[in-house]
Task: structure prediction
Amino acid sequence: MSYLSLLKKEKNMEYDTLINNGLLISMAQGLPVVEDGAVLIKDGVIKACGKANEFFGVNVKNRIHADRKIIMPGLINCHTHLPMSMFRGLADDLPLDVWLNDHIFPAEAKHVNPESVEKWSRHSCIEMLLSGTTTCCDGYFHEERVAKAVMESGIRAVTGQGVIDFPAPGVADPKENVREAIGFVKRFKDASPRLSPSIFCHSPYTCSKETLIKAKKAAVDLGVLFQIHVAETRNEINLVQGLGKLSVIKYLDSIGILDEKTLLVHSVWIDDSDIDVIKKSRASVVHCPESNMKLASGIAPVPKLIEKGVPVGLGTDGCASNNDHDLFAEMDTAAKLHKVALLDPCVMDARTTLKMATIKGAKAIGLDHITGSIEKGKSADIVLVDMDKPHVTPMYDPFSTLVYSSKASDVSLVMVDGKVLVQEGKIL
Ligand SMILES: [Zn+2]
Result:
């Protein structure tokens, strides 16, 4: 709705914020680009967006001038383990099983406690906000402390309490793992409009069939997202108990895990028939290219998944396997990785890649009715990206600029729910 038609309805309304005179990339249907664009906000919600001259004379408390800046929706990081920034650079250049069993699991046993989880989650929230991410989807242990850090930082998040069939931080008895996750979801379901609690089963090789079924049933009963690492490495098929002749995806489907509220993280080692199963189940996938590259796990068939209509979001994974939360770098990597893998420079074009980091990511984690694009009625989760720098000049196509040229450090302003959290590149 343009401001002109809004004005007739709400004549003397005082609005909170007008973002004015920027290049508006809304990521709404059809991906319209508005030069000299503006976004009008009240009570954390986008009331209208369009050409800046339509908003002339609007009664507004706060004006944000976006000259020489792109106005875009905040980025969505669909897979994180926020506290793991404490292990950034701890063990690199190792195979996944050695990295996990000899380094990460022992370090977690030693250093992960409620205080460290909260401290490093807060640290990760700051890193994400500074680099233009306004929503993340997390899974870890002591998740109540992650949720606390999320609520205090101002970022939006899906937070999943981890479920694994061996003693884990905060869950000494694995028999209690699903009960703990249920308790977490119940405690945080109405804690904040920016927080969506969830259940996160670590993987089909660290959770038994019984655990998976029990955890998924709980997620369905509670109406929350169910997250799981799936088909990350080629060897995973040898680690899952009771697989028989099934692929990992078909095994999960056979025990009722896949539906539209299931988020399949990685999905690297899947074939065409697995993609059909995912599509039919309406589950979503998260692509974590840098983590998959760093651990040499493989390359997920993302162009095929997208072609089939599976919602695919983009994730960084934890900082121990990336080693950052920078979605601008992740977009650049994703776009180029599939081109070289398929020897086809036309796949994963800039628009497709930016969709994955915004509106499709929001869809994958079930928040596309709230965020992921700049549209009337959605939350004002908005980022301004500086275009007044040599490495983004000239600009022929803003989608190309954002994916291939822009850097996280070009983010100048970040707001979540209409509240400014980063200004002039600094956290407030
Ligand atoms: Zn992960």
The first strand starts at residue 15 and ends at 25. The mean pLDDT is 95. Residues 79, 81, 229, 265, 317-318 surround zinc ion (CB under 6 Å). The chain has two domains: 3-74+374-427, 75-364.
